[in-house]
């Protein structure tokens, strides 16, 4: 590719521009990712590219050097190279290719996602490379790279990473970390020179996965600042990094984290990287997330939409499965408005506790002599759908499956058994017999009970797992994707929830194949206020499960009133996970009203725009959902600590139409109000403000006790 054969390519969608152009050596450079550049004719584009050319500093290469779309050490990039590997058995053993013969194909139809496919070759070293760069109609960037071994011998890949350039005035970084029951906890720091890398080697996405890596202007918030973010859409080992070099480049990158020997390409074989998603906004994190939400809503396996209210049995009964107890739970669940009853762990052979049984997906006849039929019929007679928990990628050492097929257990590189985790091992899905057995068992149980929904769990890390001496996570991850794809093909309409010890598998790779994620095993609403807020950087609200638990949270021992628990779940895929049998009439009535309130908001949850109005007091956490046409919005105002001031600072409501007048009302379900919760100013008969006043001047909040919540509705007043 030289400049004549590859004129500058300007793609623009939804206020975002990408500008790709060849440098003087014919190497493609992504000159711009960010705000729309406007209508630029060829002359203007050439001028723009020329204006971006750097000078030649002292003690440097004598020719001008720009970092290409593929940062290459062989062209002087001294940060993390995009491509690394070496060859054995013939040819040139180079660890990094030197690409040339660049060419590009551009698809840029108005109203469609724009796409550029860039190809290049290192003929001598045998690397054939293809990059797919897309800009969606919502302004989301997607980039992935395929590498083909084009010559004799084996090409061993060490890294195939994708990067996007960020403007140097983004000097602050935000990434996320976490642990079980505290997933996606934010950490912020200045973006200094060097590489800030977040690697995940859990063999799954991980509780501590960063979810997004965000660079932004100092002090960026949910509704302020210019931000660039990337996400690696992959459920196995992965890396995300932010790199600011001494030369002056600022890049965000990511890719699969490959162990030595994990991907070895024979001649003609191809490795394709996961997508790197990139989202930009000049108005803070919320609009950045909207592009990601639009993407996930569009790639959903099923038509996204209103999610049924769930009753999950886990914290209600754990392993204590009896028809009588579960039928009674179903009765009460239906009476409070539940629409889908999900039987969690404990229904299959040998599963009386969490130390046995995984690997055989047949109903335990000692607990269910007539199979699950009596329960399923009962659930259906109450008008509810039926869902079932499974953990298909795992096997208990104490199980019929492991006793019959010890070779199905994924082992360490020297064939030793990895240490158990929750007393379980990983099923080797590359073993075709193991794979087919689990797939057929799943299809059989789903067909027999006409299961509407699977809660698909995954409760351990995969470390030191190998096949034929090579690390196995890459192939295992692809096998899981295949299993999900085949199951969905066999049962169109089956919905699947991704759970992994709570929220250890939340990524766009799994969300392309599932319909809901379980963000965390904690349903303590105080923890959930944080976890949901940060998980929603990527995940739209209707795809995020949130359950009302009992008054005392099982994972923390904290107790909260029903209003706080229910308001925290209100704007998500709502459900209960609580032994509802034996609750008094008053509590059931209150829960019924919360469920009904959720159903009122539900159409908006499935289609609306999620906002998080920034509040100066960290004790106040606000989550809002605004209808697409901005005719209506709902906000949950929650406290996560005592407010700093007697009167909490005014709340600047974002998302509303500035020109529109809105009636604000308090829609909180009345309950045993805490004596410190004083009557909100937006009394039942409401107050009217314009969207502009609500955002610019803000509205006052009621006095709120620590760990309490109010629900505010704004509805357009039509004149
Ligand atoms: C871990 C999940 O996160 C829980 O919700 C529950 O399904 C248990 N596994 C069941 O073993």
Description:
There is one protein chain. The longest helix is centred in the last third of the chain and has 23 residues, at 585-607. Helix 10 (525-535) packs parallel to helix 11 (562-569). Among the domains are: 9-299, Beta-galactosidase, Chain A, domain 5; 611-716, Golgi alpha-mannosidase II (Immunoglobulin-like), CATH 2.60.40.1180. A hairpin with a 2-residue loop joins strand 10 and strand 11. It is globular. It is built from 13 helices and 37 strands. The termini are far apart. By secondary structure, the protein is an alpha+beta fold. Strands 5, 6, 7, 8, 10, 11, 13, 14, 18 and 19 form a 10-stranded antiparallel sheet that branches. The chain binds (2R,3S,4R,5S)-2-(hydroxymethyl)piperidine-3,4,5-triol (DGJ). (2R,3S,4R,5S)-2-(hydroxymethyl)piperidine-3,4,5-triol binds at residues 314, 344-345, 354, 389, 457, 459, 499, 501-502, 518, 521.
List the helices and strands and how they pair.
Layout: E1 9-13, E2 16-22, E3 28-35, H1 42-51, E4 83-88, E5 100-107, E6 114-122, E7 127-135, E8 141-149, E9 154-165, E10 172-179, E11 182-190, E12 194-200, E13 213-216, E14 227-232, E15 238-244, E16 250-256, E17 263-265, E18 270-272, E19 276-281, H2 285-298, E20 310-312, H3 314-317, H4 323-336, E21 340-343, H5 373-381, E22 385-390, E23 394-396, H6 400-404, E24 424-426, H7 432-449, E25 453-456, E26 466-467, E27 470-471, H8 473-490, E28 495-498, H9 508-511, E29 516-517, H10 525-535, E30 545-548, H11 562-569, E31 573-576, H12 585-607, E32 609-611, E33 620-626, E34 632-639, E35 661-666, E36 687-690, H13 691-696, E37 709-716
Parallel strand pairs: 20-21, 20-31, 21-22, 22-25, 25-28, 28-29, 30-31
Antiparallel strand pairs: 1-2, 2-3, 4-9, 5-6, 6-7, 7-8, 8-18, 8-19, 9-16, 9-17, 10-11, 10-13, 12-15, 13-14, 14-19, 15-16, 23-24, 26-27, 32-33, 33-34, 34-37, 35-36, 35-37
Helix pairs in contact: 4-5, 7-8, 10-11, 11-12
This protein binds (2R,3S,4R,5S)-2-(hydroxymethyl)piperidine-3,4,5-triol (DGJ).
